[in-house]
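Hi R.,

Here are the chain sequences for the assembly we discussed:
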Amino acid sequence: MGDILEFFEQMGFMNMTWQQGLMLIISFFLLYLAIKKQYEPLLLLPIAFGMLLTNLPGAGMYHSELWTAFLDANSPAYHSYGAIMREGGLLDILYIGVKAGVYPCLIFMGVGAMTDFGPLIANPKSLLLGAAAQLGIFLTFLAANAMGFTEAQAGSIGIIGGADGPTSIFLTSKLAPELLGPIAIAAYSYMALVPVIQPPIMRALTTKKERAIKMSQLRPVSKTEKIIFPIAITTIVALMLPDAAPLIGCLMLGNLAKECGVVDRLSKTMQNELMNIVVIFLGLTVGATATAGSFLNVRTLMILAMGIVAFGCGTAGGVLLAKLMNVFSKEKINPLIGSAGVSAVPMAARVSQQVGQEENPSNFLLMHAMGPNVAGVIGSAVAAGILLTMLG
Amino acid sequence: MMTPLAINWSHVWMVTGLGFCMVITLLVVLIFILKLLGTVISNAVKAPKAALPKDVAQATAAQAAPAAAQASADDDLAAIAMALHLYFNGVHDVEPTEIHIKRVERSGWNSKLYGMNNLHR
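And here is the predicted structure of the full complex:
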């Protein structure tokens, strides 16, 4: 009888707190969004499942207290990966890749191998739109400071406005690792909600006439240009901003492998196997950081609220700069492509295309919007490098 | 979280202003480099034509390159338009998925047996 009682006492049901129960319900909801609604399922599904695993009482797959000790200078386990390997669970061990900033860089390698920078090379002015869309990052940094977050935490919250998951995780793991769970979930949730968040802002800031502007066809880009581009960008950005080198370097390595045409096997591996494996590890472990203790508090709600402000400001920044460029330039730009400057490749470019076609069904903005869209990836990595240099 | 009184606002404003300006500056530098790259490479591509007399090379480049690019673009657009038309209007033949036993119609034209058995003697 005693054994039976002991067995029942060890069951997760008996040890579950209401906060853990609520987190399980949130994870079920996220799984529903990933599977049924297909909101960024490749990432949301592992994140939600990681959240499920970490909140199962007694499973012991992730130990937030180990990572607190890892960051505590007075603890014997301070910066000791050995302690993590010795005492941690499966997700603790996988989380080392996030902590060391490895996974976001590997994902960037895959992103680079899948991205065509042709539209950006054909129209380099797109880079300006990609830069303007980073406005949201810095305005949110300001707002987060005003709300009482530390500067490092504010920088990590601001980077949500870059609409770039790997960059957000990379910067947060360096500046404010205690906020990694809420920031990663906010970043990926809002990226999935780009088609909902952006169109009202785009319509509010543009006139019907502006939305109907047709842009001339982009010039063809030679293979030589496509090969030199990643080498040149890596060299220049890394020399000007060494802290951005890991992200930009991996992004451009992936792109060079794709464009040079002599390492197809490596390029395919980066695009498929490597990318998929890292996405699984990253999603699971980021989800695992969303424990009841770290997630269910007012601070998380504030981060979620500021994330949407960051997204909105970034969208507005891109659209407004495109309008300003129209004042000075002879060849008109459709301001709707400015909103694509907030990374979120290729979702933001698709939104520009859709909103443009609502006004003029014969207008095809997709390729024009891909320029600012990939410029946004470079812009957000540069912004992350700058924040890391100034706040790290 | 820090208390609002502990915020070093001058540093916060400096990071905000300087950070955003640095993003813009760095990307503007990249714009110039990309433009330079485009110019250098397009000149390098045109360089072999320098062997021709100057006026002939200029005339050829002025006429042939845009014309070739336009023709190529037009061909691409025509192919895409045709594919979309065929797809959306269901112009492709629909192959029946049923298998039939072919009934051979025999006549004096295609069947030796028929012809032999029905000889009019």
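Chain B touches chain A at residues 1-4, 7-9, 11-13, 15-16, 18-20, 22-24, 26-31, 33-35, 37-38, 41-42, 44-45, 69, 73 (CB under 8 Å). Chain B has a mean pLDDT of 73.

Let me know if anything looks off.

Best,
T.
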